[in-house]
Write a structure and sequence with these properties.
With about 450 residues, the protein is of the alpha+beta class. The chain has 2 domains: about 250 residues, no CATH class; about 160 residues, Glucose Permease (Domain IIA) (Distorted Sandwich), CATH 2.70.70.10. Helices cover about 30% and strands about 20% of the residues. Strands 8, 11, 13, 14, 15, 16, 17, 19, 20 and 21 form a 10-stranded mixed beta sheet that branches. A 4-stranded antiparallel beta sheet has the order 1-5-4-3. Strands 2-24 form a two-stranded antiparallel sheet. A hairpin with a 2-residue loop joins strand 6 and strand 7.
C-alpha cells in the first residue's frame, strides 16, 4: 500500500497529486461541510464511550478479497436481494476499493447502515447506497477533480483526487456503481485530511475512525453512528469468514453473543423501569436492526419457541403456525425463543430472545452455538424501534447479561447513561480558531463557516 501511495504522489497524471506551492495558511480554505438535519443523540453516545471498544479486526489484503465470497457476505448482512444484486454490489465495491485503496468491508458496511442496501435510498439527508450528500462536496468535487487541503508543517497544501469516471450529479448518486465510486473517493479524502481537520477544528466529539467524518462532515458531533457502521463491518467480516466471533468461557460453557458483530451495545439494562414504573426490565435490549439473525449463545436445547400472550399465557408453536396468531394479540414478549444450556457438572443456564420477527426453531430442537434461532423484529412492542430483548437465567434467578457477557456486550443502558450525563457540567460553546478571524470564535452551525 505504501509503495502505491508514493507512486501516485510523484507521477503527474496520477489519481492523487500534491498541487505545487498551493499554500493558503492565511485565508479560508473551504466552507464547513456538514449534513443538515442530523442531530447528535448525546444519551445514546453516552451508553458506550469510544475508549471502551476493543481494537477493530483487520480486513484481509484487498488483493485476496473475492467477488463471489463478498457477495455471499453481503447477502447474509443485507438479506435477500432481487436479481442477484449482491453480485453486482460486490463487484462495484471491490472496484471502488481498488480505485481508492479503501477497505471494501467498510464500503459494504456503509451501504448497509446508510442506505439499507437500496440503490434508491434517501436516508440521513443523502442519496443512494451510502447516503452521499452532493451539497457537502459540491465546492470540492467539480470538473472531475476532488480538491482538499492538508496541513504539513504548519502550512496548508492542496491535494487533488482525479474523480472523472462519472459526473458528480444527483441522478448518478442513485446508481449503485457511481455511488460507491464517489463514496470511495470521499473516504480517501477524509482518511488523508482527518488529522488536519482535527488540528484546525478541535471541537470534535471523541471518535475512533475517519468514517465519522463521512457521516457528519468536518465537525463530528457523536461517535454513535460510527460505532454502528463498525459493527456492520464486523458482521461482514464474520460472514465473509475472516473474523471469528469472540467467545467467553463462563458457567462452564463457551458463550458467544446472541447477535453477530460483537461486541454489541446494551441500550436498556436489567431492572430499568417499564410502563411508568409498573414493572422492571427482566433483561437487556440490544441495539439491532430488523432482520438481523439472532443466534444461540451456546450449545443447548430449545425449551420454548412460540408467543407471549396477554394474561401470562405462553404458547409453543410450530414454525408454520405463527401467522395464525394475530400480532395485535401478542403480549409484551411477542414471538420468542428460550434455549437451555447444560454444563458437564449438571448446572444449567437459560437464554431467551424476544420480540423476534421470524422464529426458525421449534420446541425440543437441539442447537449449536451460533445456530440461527430467528430474526430481530418488534413483535409485542407498542412504540419502540426494533431491537433484541435478551434474558439470562440460572437456578438462582435472573442474571444481568451486561455483567455476565461483558466483552460480548458493551454499555450501561440508557438510565445509567442519563444519570452520568446529569453529573456532567453543562455543555459549553467550543472555541474554534479560524484563519480569517485570527482568534477564538464560537462554534456556529452556519453551513458557510470558513475552515482553515
Amino acid at each position: 500500500m505504501g509503495t502505491r501511495v508514493r507512486v501516485v504522489l510523484v507521477v503527474a497524471t496520477c489519481a492523487l497529486c500534491v498541487a505545487p506551492a498551493s499554500v493558503l495558511a492565511d485565508s479560508p480554505l473551504w466552507s464547513l461541510r456538514r449534513r443538515p438535519g442530523l442531530v447528535a443523540n448525546h444519551l445514546l453516545a453516552a451508553i458506550v464511550e469510544p475508549s471502551a471498544w476493543p481494537p477493530e479486526p483487520p480486513s484481509p489484503a484487498l488483493s485476496a478479497v473475492g467477488t463471489e465470497r463478498l457477495a455471499r457476505a453481503l447477502e447474509e448482512v443485507c438479506g435477500p436481494m432481487p436479481g442477484a444484486r449482491e453480485q453486482r454490489y460486490a463487484a462495484w465495491i471491490l472496484e471502488a476499493a481498488h480505485a481508492w485503496d479503501i477497505d471494501p468491508f467498510l464500503l459494504g458496511a456503509l451501504a448497509y447502515r446508510m442506505g439499507r442496501c437500496r440503490p434508491d435510498a434517501r436516508e440521513s439527508g443523502g442519496l443512494g447506497l451510502t447516503s452521499l450528500r452532493r451539497e457537502m462536496y459540491a465546492d470540492h468535487l467539480r470538473g472531475g477533480q476532488l480538491r482538499f487541503h492538508v496541513e504539513r508543517n504548519g502550512r496548508w497544501v492542496e491535494r487533488i483526487l482525479r474523480v472523472d469516471r462519472f459526473p458528480f450529479a444527483e441522478p448518478r448518486l442513485l446508481r449503485a456503481q457511481e455511488n460507491l465510486y464517489f463514496a470511495g473517493a470521499v473516504l480517501a479524502m477524509w482518511r488523508a485530511q482527518e488529522a488536519s481537520v482535527h488540528r484546525r477544528l478541535p471541537a470534535q466529539a471523541a471518535h475512533r475512525h475517519f468514517v465519522s467524518h463521512f457521516v457528519w462532515g468536518d465537525r463530528v458531533r457523536s461517535h454513535w453512528q460510527e460505532s454502528q457502521i463498525l459493527t456492520d463491518r464486523r458482521r461482514l467480516l464474520e460472514a465473509y469468514g475472516v473474523h471469528r466471533p469472540p467467545v467467553l468461557h463462563r458457567f462452564g460453557l463457551a458463550l458467544r453473543a446472541p447477535l453477530d458483530g460483537a461486541p454489541r451495545v446494551v441500550l436498556s439494562g436489567l431492572g430499568e423501569g417499564r410502563q411508568d414504573g409498573a414493572r422492571r426490565h427482566r433483561g437487556v435490549d440490544l441495539d439491532s436492526l430488523p432482520g438481523e439473525p439472532v443466534r444461540a449463545i451456546a450449545d443447548g436445547r430449545v425449551t420454548f419457541a412460540g408467543v407471549d400472550l396477554p394474561g401470562g399465557e405462553h404458547r409453543n408453536l410450530r414454525r408454520d403456525e405463527y401467522d395464525l396468531v394475530s400480532r395485535s394479540r401478542l403480549g409484551p414478549g411477542g414471538r420468542y425463543v428460550c434455549v437451555q444450556h447444560e454444563t458437564e457438572d449438571g448446572r444449567w443456564l437459560r437464554s431467551c430472545s424476544m420480540h423476534l420477527e421470524a422464529v426458525e426453531v421449534e420446541w425440543g430442537q437441539r442447537v449449536r452455538a451460533g445456530d440461527r434461532l430467528g430474526t430481530v423484529g418488534r413483535t409485542g412492542m407498542q412504540d419502540s424501534a426494533a431491537h433484541l430483548h435478551f434474558e439470562l437465567q440460572d437456578a438462582s434467578g435472573l442474571l444481568d447479561p451486561a455483567e455476565h457477557l461483558q466483552g460480548l456486550l458493551l454499555g450501561r443502558g440508557a438510565e445509567a447513561a442519563e444519570r452520568a450525563l446529569r453529573r456532567q457540567p453543562p455543555r459549553g460553546t467550543s472555541a474554534v480558531r479560524t484563519a480569517d478571524s485570527g482568534g477564538d470564535e464560537p462554534s456556529r452551525a452556519d453551513p458557510g463557516e470558513p475552515v482553515g
